[in-house]
Amino acid sequence: MAGRSAATWAVLAAAALFGTSATALALLAPGAPGPSVAADRLLVGAAGLVAVVLLRHGSADLLRIWRRPSAWLMGACIAGYQAFFFMGTARAGVAVGTLIALGAAPLLAGILGWVVREGAPGWVWVVSTLIAIVGLTLVAWTSLDVAEPVGLLYALAAAACYATYTVIGVRLAREGLPASSVLAATFAIGAVVLVPAAVTSSWWMSAQGVVAVLWLGLGATTAAYLLFGVGLRWLQPGQISTLTLLEPVVATLLGVLVVGEQLGILGWVGTLLVLAALGLLGIVDGRRRSSTVTTVRTSA
Description:
It is a single chain. The chain is an all-alpha fold and about 300 residues long. It contains 14 helices and no strands. Helix 3 (about 35-55) packs antiparallel against helix 5 (about 70-90). The protein is globular.
């Protein structure tokens, strides 16, 4: 069960890296167009993942994965998430769009994982996810504006893409394929899909722009998803998506501490609720590990 503990911490670390994206962009390249940022980030991130896999495992696994139809669906979901997320935040607002995209993903991933028989996430997941969603709602409440219905649909589409991508990734990783290879192969597919958006803007053609795209690509994508991949083998889809709700908490804190944004009392209460939900998952998982160890020792 030590693997589950390491997987939990790895996914949390990945979520923390994901959460740096908005602040890095705000500091280094404010005003950069969202779709182009997403495309450039994915191209650099995919290149980094592929390079790591080639050094570790060679090209055999990548070629095997590229022959799998499910890998192409996963790659399309990666591209779809990136595109719909930025389209949703542009039309519905950053707070509301992010809330829907990230808040709905755990519920959708848990349900989809149960449907395809990856295991029911359980009542602890249900309670933790609901607490986290309430927390995210409070974080977004102070900046809530009238959102365009189309923007809300884009954000829901992003959540659906993220949930589907997580469930498919779990299944591929559990079939004996290295998680890092699964991520590298599918991100490469997603990057190819978004190439047209990458060539429509030159926002990165400056010293700060280069730093921004390198961090977004190598730090918040390559490194983050290598950590994320650890969770694919050990955790259920719903659990993974709930753990990644740490991302908007980190993004909010960085926005307040680094960028100078304001967070009201409700925002702080919401942040604490999300942390409490994550803590609940961790405590229950720790008790399960302890119970398992005790049972094994007793049996021995």
